[in-house]
Design goal:
4 domains, Ribosomal Protein L25, Chain P, Glutamyl-tRNA Synthetase, domain 3, 21% strand, 603 residues, disordered N terminus, RNA-binding, seven-stranded mixed sheet, alpha/beta, Rossmann fold
Length: 603
RNA sequence: AGGGGAUUGGUGUAAUCGGUAGCACGACUGAUUCUGGUUCAGUUAGUUGGGGUUCGAGUCCCUAAUCCCCUGCCA
């Protein structure tokens, strides 16, 4: 279980708020004005991994419950034994908790309600609202008609009630083969809404269920089961995606059918709770696919390393990637809740991640592609082998995060990309004859470029002892202050820790993967992963107690995340980082920093 | 003989009873900066089309267009 969400999910009023506000004002669920009656749920089917689209649903449903002071429930809609597995129950439970979707009480399962659903189904048969149909699946399909033509009644539609009750009981007892009979609701075969043309309520499936085992031989269909699950749990607002809009009349019909004839003194008992179904548009990010089938193809064909490969849009992948649940929720809130089939700029998610991590991630210095820098005058101002410890700010956004010590010596490593032999005018970093600040270190001037063929292999530089800590030197006799335009990151080679860094980029190069050819594989980004096997990280990189104490670096999921200065946000990969000392930890790049130089250089 | 839903700058999203079309992201300027980050200031750009009602329409009426969903014993 996790804590309540932070202010990032603070309400942004949308149409569902308005619906709920009205219900509360009119007292639809109880005393007018009582906001705490609001109950929502997240009802995943345990047949796969959760993805970013589900995050929107979790954020919405959980957020509403929190905002109104009501309750949020996690319920598995496990009505199909052939597709569902315990493994998915476990991963989904973990993901919802990680997302901050704290639920009330125990996790619920639709399968726990099977007996109650069965009793209600018998009640519907007795009331003349349902019948056992012995037609084949093909016959039922043919009898349903088409979009423009009415369907035809099943020959079993008007069979005696007792026949249906008896057959239904025997279906339940396991007397019949899969597919040989179904229980159908008697609604309207001529309805323009196909969902109302005598929908199937139960089918025979002689399969082992991951929770109920061999107890059942019949399983309820979504339309029959879902509203009942909501009703049993006292859900007030059953929120789902747009494609279920056409199902709402059926959702309401089933509950109305159960309530038909119920009331004070009725043989059937009291009326049952009738939730309000409301539909919203699903999340639709650019550069992402969420189709379960296509994601599976990526895994099966080894285009990615698994369901939690940090390039995948699954929650478990985003977690490994270093995204925070707070950022994901902020994104889901930011894009709003409407009925419009929108397209959501993936950059907005990346931005939410930057936004969150800029405030919270401790800073460290890491050199991805080292270039050797020798300080030629290091021995002129003290012992040539000495190491000076410099003070570096842990998080400029949060002074309370404190500082740390980083070593500086005569041999350093800087980023290859921070040096250019033939630099354009606006290149502010190191170039022959140029001066640059080593952040929290000294100012250095490049005097000599050592090359092996075309490759630059070493820079020989002098440092200015008056710039210790990176500060500007004192003004000269005329009062002029020397300035330097660029500041770059670095590590002392002797003390640096070698690490493996995985630079992830978007999995697809097309905004709508597969749009051009029909196959998303064609739009795969060949550069979505670059493994840097030996990057160099400053030695005292572990999150400090001071950082944890003030919130910076204290991520409640326990994942260590950092900003590697000037590079981006990274996290320790829990899965690939070995426990044994001596092996290189693996860091994943969540997202780069914004880079206005790259933008300008690309022009 | 179909039914249901939707349409506001490049993107997303607001606008109480019909009364100044606002916010965020992006893009572009500039300032600040020991991260080409952050922050700050500014610029850019919109009511799907056509009619109508009205002093006044994103909002009401008529009409057209476009997009999404629906013919599983999946959810």
């Amino acid at each position: 279980m996790s804590e309540a969400p932070g202010p990032e999910t603070s309400p942004k009023r949308h149409f569902i708020h308005q619906i709920i506000d009205e219900h509360i004002a009119h007292g639809r669920w109880g005393t007018p004005g009582d906001r705490s009656v609001v109950r929502t749920r997240f009802p995943p089917e345990p047949n796969g991994y959760l993805h970013i689209g589900h995050a929107k649903s979790i954020t919405l449903n959980h957020g509403l419950a929190v905002e109104y002071g009501g309750a949020f429930i996690l319920r598995f809609d496990d009505t199909n034994p052939e597709k569902e597995e315990q493994e998915f129950v476990d991963s989904i439970t973990r993901d919802v908790a990680w997302m901050g979707g704290a639920w009330e009480g125990d996790v619920r399962f639709a399968s726990d309600y099977f007996h109650q659903m069965y009793d209600w189904a018998v009640e519907l048969i007795r009331k003349g609202f349902a019948y056992v149909d012995e037609q084949s699946a093909e016959q039922i399909r043919a009898g349903r008609g088409t979009l423009t033509e009415a369907g035809t009644d099943s020959p079993f539609r008007d069979r005696p009630v007792d026949d249906s009750v008896d057959l239904f009981a025997r279906m339940k007892a396991g007397e019949f083969a899969d597919g040989s009979k179904v229980l159908r609701a008697k609604v309207d075969m001529a309805s323009p809404n196909l969902n109302l043309r005598d929908p199937v309520m139960y089918r025979i499936v002689n399969a082992r269920h991951h929770r109920t085992g061999d107890e059942w031989h019949i399983y309820p269909m979504y339309d029959w089961a879902h509203g009942l699950e909501d009703s049993i749990e006292g859900i007030t607002n059953s929120i789902c995606t747009l494609e279920f809009e056409n199902h709402r009349p059926l959702y309401d019909w089933f509950i109305a059918a159960i309530n038909d004839g119920r009331g004070p003194g009725s043989e059937w008992g009291k009326a049952i709770h009738h939730p309000q179904q409301t539909e919203f548009a699903r999340l639709n990010p650019t550069f992402v696919i969420t189709s379960k089938r296509k994601l599976k193809q990526l895994v099966d064909e080894k285009h990615v390393e698994g369901w939690d490969d940090p390039r995948m849009p699954t929650i478990s992948a985003l977690r490994r990637r270093g995204y925070t649940p707070e950022a994901i929720r902020a994104f889901c809130t930011e894009i709003g809740t409407t009925k419009f089939n929108a397209s959501h700029d993936y950059g907005l998610l990346e931005n939410a991640v930057r936004d969150d991590l800029n405030k919270r991630a401790p800073r460290r210095m890491c050199v991805l592609r080292p270039l050797k820098v020798t300080i030629t005058n290091w021995g002129e101002h003290g012992d040539a082998d000495r190491v000076e410890w410099m003070e570096a700010v842990n998080n400029p956004e949060d002074d309370a995060a404190g500082t740390r010590q980083i070593p500086f010596g005569g041999t350093l490593s800087i980023e290859r990309a921070d040096f250019m032999e033939d630099a354009p005018k606006k290149f502010f970093r190191l170039k022959p004859g140029g001066e640059v600040r080593l952040r929290y270190g000294y100012w250095i001037t490049c005097n000599e470029v050592i090359k092996d063929g075309d490759e630059v292999v070493e820079l020989r530089c002098t440092y200015d002892p008056q710039t210790r800590g990176g500060d500007a030197p004192p003004p000269d006799a005329e009062g002029n202050v020397r300035k330097v335009k660029g500041t770059i990151h670095w590590v002392a080679t002797s003390h640096a820790v070698p690490i493996e860094v995985r630079l992830y980029d978007r999995l697809f190069t097309a905004e709508r993967p597969g749009k051009a050819t029909g196959n998303p594989i064609d739009d795969l980004n060949p550069e979505s992963l670059e493994v840097v096997e030996r990057a160099l990280l400053e030695p005292n990189w572990r999150t400090t107690d001071a950082e944890k104490a003030v919130g910076t670096g204290a991520f409640r999921d326990g994942i260590e995340r950092f900003q590697f200065e000037r590079l981006g946000y990274f996290c320790v990969d829990e899965k690939l980082t070995p426990d044994q000392a001596g092996d290189r930890p693996v860091f994943n790049r969540a997202v780069t920093l914004k880079d206005s130089w790259a933008k300008q250089a690309g022009k």
